Amino acid sequence: MNKRGDSWNATQMLIYSLIAVFVLLYMVGLFSYVLSHFKYSTLHTSKTLDEDLLMQRFMRSPDCFVYFDYEINRAYPNVIDWEKFSDEQLNKCLLHKNIKFQLTLENLERNKLKTIKSAGWNNRVERSLSKDVLIKDDRIWRGNLKIDIQK
Length: 151
What we know:
Helix content: 25-40%
Largest sheet: 6 strands, mixed
Distance between the termini: 85 Å
Structural class: alpha+beta
Number of helices: 3
Radius of gyration: 31 Å
Low-confidence stretches: none
């Protein structure tokens, strides 16, 4: 037996083992980083989620401004009832009292404009959105709903 060859194999095996340990540690670290980043990205929600949900409530809920046909028991999302569009209805519609709104509804074809404000509105706009809607008055008209938000 050649003892010199045996020592070279042991040294070579030790080097390969150290490389394998470093590669394995690197892969475990990379896997844990990717997993923690994925966990954060799936649980992250929008900072304006409350506002966005309330705005959807304005546009889709018959409890707010959406036109509701009682004969067929159906609400029409994105169709605003001109008669329901009032300060009282807005304050009944709001679930969160800490977010204040000013809504301006403009009937594009008849040049009518109506603005309502929630209780506590102090004319300080932090965010604004504009949505194209249909307005139900005596018939259906094209319109625009501008939503101003303050916290």
